[in-house]
UniProtKB/TrEMBL annotation:
Coiled coil: none annotated. It comes from the Bacteria. Keywords: Hydrolase. The chain holds residues 275 to 566 of 578 of the full protein. Residues 24-278 form the EAL domain. It is an enzyme of class 3 (hydrolase). Transmembrane segments: none annotated. This is Cyclic di-GMP phosphodiesterase Gmr.
Length: 292
């Protein structure tokens, strides 16, 4: 509907706003449809011991296949899925996908590798969802294999996440990981009040770390606090040999996740790419592969 009020500019804005609203509706519809039709898949990225290159665990990273069959990374749909109330279902679907592929996951990454699932802060603050998700994890029969990754905001939010929700997961043996640490609003000292098994230092601190004295200082502080609190530290977004060399020479950080070790990979692709030798499987899993 274009207002015919004789003012060209107003009509132009009306028309462009209408186009925008229509475009948004189209995106919403296609997201609803994609989830309804289960047109999604998980890519897995390993968390690697930087000394031995052993895979400590993997993280499931969801992708959607749009109407044209193009694979979309979560940046383009996770927030919208949250707004539309579709994200809880998506998380349950991710878990179902993992359970379905568990044999292949074990063959590829080893039966000891932990399996991390991302939970948005909004989900973490919703006790109803968290209860149903904990129950679903329990029903897999192997809840101890899983970790949930939650950003620090969820921990400092004024709700029952820390006191009531987290203990429920920990009782099942599900690990708890603080994702993207350093990007939220909590201060370093807030760490002292957080109960978690793992802390993932955001990529923004790891990128070019060897050239950035301020990031180096922050890294040292997080490292010593985490050590005192008994949390495992993971460096996120490690891309280069120089970054790795710095971590090895100047820190005690033992684990990293990033393109340097492996891009997120699809299991089906490994199945196609690998012969039956398990050695070949491991080398494919830990070698940087094409990004998805
Ligand atoms: P995240 O949990 O912090 O995951 C790490 C992101 O960094 C992933 O992006 C990964 O592909 C990317 N990454 C890993 N290594 C490198 C590197 O060396 N360099 C660079 N530049 N990037 C790297 P992705 O897969 O696009 O996911 C983005 C975010 O979407 C995730 O950030 C997570 O917050 C969210 N997400 C992913 N899957 C799910 C899910 O199933 N549920 C929810 N609620 N959120 C999810
Ligand atoms: Mg994560
Ligand atoms: Mg992260
Ligand atoms: Mg991140």
């Amino acid at each position: 509907r274009i207002k015919n009020n004789g003012k060209g500019l107003a009509a132009f804005f009306d028309a462009s706003m209408e186009r925008e609203a229509q475009a948004r509706m189209k995106v919403e519809q296609s997201l609803r449809l994609a989830i309804l039709e289960k047109r999604f898949c998980c890519a897995f990225q390993s968390k690697v011991d930087i000394r031995t290159q052993a895979v400590k665990g993997i993280e499931a990273l969801v992708r959607l296949r749009d109407d044209e069959g193009v694979i979309q990374a979560p940046g383009s749909f996770i927030n919208l899925a949250g707004e539309l109330g579709l994200i809880d279902e998506l998380t349950h679907l991710v878990l179902a996908e993992i359970v379905k592929s568990i044999d292949l996951i074990n063959d590829t990454f080893g039966p000891e590798a932990t399996i991390s699932i991302n939970v948005a802060a909004k989900q973490a603050g919703n006790p109803e969802f968290m209860r149903s998700f904990a129950q679903a994890l329990e029903e897999t029969g192997f809840p101890q294999r899983f970790m949930i990754e939650v950003t620090e905001d969820a921990f400092v939010a004024k709700n029952h996440f820390q006191d009531e929700i987290l203990p429920m997961f920990r009782k099942l043996g599900v690990g708890v990981s603080i994702d993207d640490f350093g990007t939220g609003y909590s201060s370093l000292s807030a760490l002292a009040d957080i109960t978690a098994d793992e802390i993932k230092i955001d990529r923004s601190f790891i990128t070019d770390i060897h050239n950035r004295p301020r990031s180096q200082g922050i890294l040292r502080a997080i490292e010593s606090l985490s050590e005192a609190l008994g949390m495992t530290v993971i460096a996120e977004g490690l891309e280069t040999y120089e970054e790795l060399a710095y971590l090895q020479a100047a820190t005690k950080i033992r684990y990293a996740q990033g393109y340097y070790f492996s891009r997120p990979i699809f299991l089906e692709e490994l199945k196609l790419a690998t012969p039956s030798s398990s050695e070949a499987r491991v080398s494919v899993a830990s070698r940087p592969a094409q990004q998805h």
